[in-house]
Design goal:
359 residues, two-stranded parallel sheet, binds magnesium ion, binds ligand C2E, 16% strand, 44% helix
Length: 359
Amino acid sequence: DEFIVLAEGAALEAGPEVIAERLLDVLRTPFHVRGDSPNEITVSASVGAALGPRLSADDLLRDASVALGQAKEEGAGRYVLFAQDTPQAIESRLALEAELRTAVEYEEFSLRFQPIFDIDRRTTIGIEALLRWDRTKGRVLPPDHFLSHLEHAGLLVPVGRWVLREACMHAAGLHERGRPISVSVNIAAAQLADESLPSDVADALTSSGLDPHALVLEVAEMTLLQNTDFALERMTALKALGVRLAVDDFGVGFSSLAFLRQFPVDILKIDRSLIASSATPAESSRLVHTLVELGQTLGLEVIAEGIENAGQLDPLILANCDAGQGFLYGRPLTAAQLDLFLSMQDEPARSGLWVSQPT
Ligand code: C2E
Ligand code: MG
Ligand code: MG
């Protein structure tokens, strides 16, 4: 008995209140369950709305449901817009932030490593380090649930520093055991804005002894678009350390070739939404082709994200995409699972089974 309405673009021009009122109006109209039934039925509804960008869909839904709770308290047939500064919203945010502070203190964070593979040879060429919160009360949470709160609590930089060190240590260990693959670490806007980032990266490299070329720092296209001024300066400083730079989640921000060219990047990661596109196979393979070509024209290595099935891989093979990442090849793995994954690949009988050939 709860429904979600997503309104975008022109629908919002007159404000969310208009949409909420219209919905309530429609629902207020009495109706007959069966056309011939003489009894009219009336239902009441409450609407809670949250407006504006959030770091994740979950955040937006959480805020809308806080507003819905208030609307219900005020009685049937009402709507409430979420306000960041209601006592309830502030309280729940503060509680979560306090929990995160404890989590940092007790080191409740861990990393998963998702393999990145060479599309031609189908071998693992790298791993991406992905943050998890091993919350004391049970669930392991993915970053979408807590990154924005870490940032709000001023903890993103210290946690990011820990991720850098941990990821470099792990990769250095793999190198020592004869697996010279790269490790990618995600860098959020708040980290990029922080002056200590280049020295944090340098420290992680020195303390682990990892070859700088084996470290890839991923910055989202949106982050570059929204923070072009300091992004350029910071990325130039990072590049000077000998690390490689990637544009993450590329293709959703509509940045241009000229825009991309300003940044000293080495790798383009095509966003999952474009790989999983619901367009027809012909359309999506043209799209993939165009994006791969764009990256390669700029002299960049192109990695496709979120490859879940062979149908999504085939156009990438045809487009000559360099590398891929996704559940088809490997999910984010714990360190122990990754070791097993890599050693299974050493057995030739086991490799090459997972993927269909292009037809
Ligand atoms: P991302 O950097 O684009 O990472 C890829 C995300 O896609 C990961 O989600 C991964 O689990 C997921 N994924 C990979 N393959 C597939 C697939 O085939 N299908 C689907 N449906 N999903 C797939 P995850 O781990 O939840 O991370 C989400 C985002 O959080 C990351 O997106 C990245 O932007 C951010 N993040 C992760 N770890 C860190 C970190 O240590 N620091 C910062 N600043 N951000 C991080
Ligand atoms: Mg990434
Ligand atoms: Mg991505």
